[in-house]
Write a structure and sequence with these properties.
This protein has twelve helices and 16 strands. It has helices spanning 67-86, 106-118, 131-144, 157-160, 172-186, 201-216, 235-243, 255-267, 284-289, 309-322, 328-346, 352-360, and strands at 18-19, 53-60, 94-101, 124-126, 148-150, 165-167, 191-197, 220-227, 248-250, 274-276, 297-300, 365-367, 370-374, 380-381, 384-390, 393-400. Helix 3 links the parallel strand 4 (124-126) and strand 5 (148-150). Helix 1 runs parallel beside helix 11 (328-346), helix 2 runs parallel beside helix 3 (131-144) and helix 5 packs across helix 6.
Length: 402
């Protein structure tokens, strides 16, 4: 999918999309503490003190199998920057973003964030979306002590990697509990099968958290099958699942495989509902899975059916810019950018330390995806919604608060 040309029309935003490789190896740094934080290294010089520019770096999957994640997030970031710069920027300075494509690969994400910090002088980082890629980036941002805000990486480990790492989304222990409770209380099911992507930190973690809550609520996981991201044939696993007669199947993967799994499940006669997490959120889900996805449910960060004025204004502006309804990834990119900009505006200076302090102090930010407060572990406290797939649309079902 080509990136929408309209995004380049804003003169205040300098955008560079680069797909490249480098020899930088991903840092294997343990979660830092005050006593054992990794040694700080000097980043490239930020914009000069007299400069009217604040440099922000973005890392995302603009290409690759999960390209809609990166592209939607990118659109949301640009929309927010246009608004912020249109109001005069932050402290009289314009925000400038340089965006690098990681092709959906953790090693490329690590290379990209290193380049943004050491060569481009980024004063803050936005990204990544996928937890595995954010986990590759976080030790590097922490090493250079550059604030990093992931819009939608939900695996708990991401923010455990350092006190400069933040997120504006809920985390998988909450998301897993949301779907387990929805299965027990709304769908009234007691027997569930799980099909997880063993190559994905996101999928493995979400499956585990769902399982814990589901079992505590009196449910039974009758079978737990696995696949690897990029697989195309899931019939062996689905045949094993069918033999256990589950009442629902929890598939905490990304839309690229979930759509295929849905189609193959129906071919094998599995008519029970499928459930998943925010990794399902893409129009490609129903393009791939078609009618087989009808009657399935997934947790997400927002619903476009929310009639709150700020949500509907965001949708209107997004449609004018890009021609389609924004998904949750776009909304999360938009909110992450505004949270970062507001932290910069409150900060005593634009030093990374002062920006970090104000990110940590974020409380009751009214975003498109809900009210956002950052807790002591740099995670967002916020609600989740559950959506149902109906004829290619994602229909709002319920909101579940923390």
């Amino acid at each position: 999918m080509l990136l929408n040309a309209k995004r380049y029309s804003t003169a205040l935003i300098a955008l560079t999309l680069i797909t490249g490789t480098a020899c930088t190896k991903k840092a294997e740094t343990p979660a830092p503490t005050d006593a054992s934080a990794p040694k700080t290294e000097a980043a490239a010089p930020a914009a000069p003190a007299g400069s009217d520019i604040i440099r922000i770096g973005e890392v995302g999957s603009m290409t690759g199998s999960e390209a809609t994640f990166g592209q939607s997030t990118h659109n949301g970031i640009l929309l927010a920057l246009k608004e912020i710069n249109g109001r005069g920027g932050v402290k009289g300075k314009k925000l400038e973003v340089t965006s690098l494509d990681d092709q959906g690969k953790p090693e490329e994400a690590a290379t990209a964030v290193t380049r943004l910090i050491t060569q481009n002088g980024a004063q803050a980082i936005l990204g990544e979306v996928a937890s595995s890629r954010s986990i590759a980036m976080a030790p590097i941002a922490q090493k250079y002590q550059i604030p990093m805000v992931t819009p939608s990486s939900t695996n708990p480990k991401v923010t455990e990697l350092g006190d400069y790492i933040f997120r504006v989304c809920f985390i998988d222990p909450f998301q897993g509990a949301v779907m387990a409770k929805f299965a027990l209380e709304n769908l009234k099911v007691k027997k569930v099968a799980i099909l997880r992507d063993v190559k994905s930190d996101y999928s493995v973690g979400l499956a585990n958290f769902f399982t814990d809550t589901f079992k505590k609520g009196g449910g039974t996981v009758v079978v737990d099958q696995s696949y690897s991201g990029g697989d195309m044939d899931f019939k062996s696993q689905l045949t094993s699942i069918r033999a256990k007669n589950p009442e629902a199947i929890f598939v905490p993967g990304y839309y690229t495989e979930v759509g295929l799994i849905g189609g193959q499940a129906r071919e094998l006669g599995l008519k029970v509902p499928m459930m998943g997490g925010d990794g399902w959120d893409s129009s490609k889900l129903t393009e791939i899975g078609g009618a087989a996805m009808n009657g399935s449910y997934f947790s997400n960060h927002y619903s476009s059916e929310n009639q709150a004025p700020e949500v509907q204004q965001f949708i209107k502006t997004y449609k004018e810019a890009y021609g389609g309804t924004p998904d949750a990834l776009a909304a999360m990119g938009y909110d992450a950018t505004h949270v970062l900009a507001e932290a910069m505006a409150r900060a005593q200076s634009l030093s990374p330390l002062d920006i970090r302090k104000e990110l940590a102090a974020t409380k009751d930010f009214h975003g498109v995806t809900g009210k956002i407060s950052i807790d002591a572990f740099r995670n967002a406290i916020k609600p989740a919604v559950v959506l149902k797939v109906e004829n290619g649309q994602f229909k709002y079902q319920t909101t579940i608060a923390p």
